[in-house]
């Protein structure tokens, strides 16, 4: 099932996409099955919700405002240097252990929402990535059973302010500017995609030009490896997000650098999941002055 969360006229909806059409219900409907945050820990309830929504009336997306698929994720764990060609272009040695940093929900935006370039820096970069969503608690699980704990997948654009990413040894600051973490447009259940999303192609486009293209298979640490490794130190919980890393082609590695600027449109597409599209805008002067 491909689930889509959106808002229209102040009311939230949850829908499933079927043959290009959305079928779903508003939260105000008595038959509303619950939000994805409510359902993600119960595979049977999630499947039943999909059936309920699929049987609901078709919905027009006119006037709809997309929302991130999840908003109550306890952990958003991001993986750096997870494609060897990206590691090389970034000037690092390939690590033997995943490079982990955190993102916070305060910086997340949805499909079609603007990515905001902060006034503090012009070094706003794109990073197209696959998101794996945890469905059942995972603690000290093996690589062989790790995918049993993944409920499904989505898409992320890890908008990175490079100047601030490298101002400290930790990357957290440059990875958490407001309105830079694009997430969506949908959540696709694991059973509707190849196991571990292997074989799928990830492509990032800036103003229609392809700037990143890779197979998910090229990840140094697969989704199964990441779930297993991370679960050795922390219990991964339903709704936790694993943002699995970006391939080569980032703007920072180009000569001259290719930074995102106001008016640009960045799209991240993963076959079988969809296209995450965001326009770039400059931070409003009032907000910049207040800072």
From TrEMBL:
This is 5-oxopent-3-ene-1,2,5-tricarboxylate decarboxylase. GO terms for biological process: carboxylic acid metabolic process. Residues 75-281 form the Fumarylacetoacetase-like C-terminal domain. One of its GO terms (molecular function) is metal ion binding. Keywords: Metal-binding. Belongs to the FAH family. SUPFAM superfamilies: FAH. The lineage of its organism: Bacteria, Pseudomonadati, Pseudomonadota, Alphaproteobacteria, Rhodobacterales. It holds the Pfam family FAA_hydrolase. The keyword Signal does not apply. The keyword rRNA-binding does not apply.
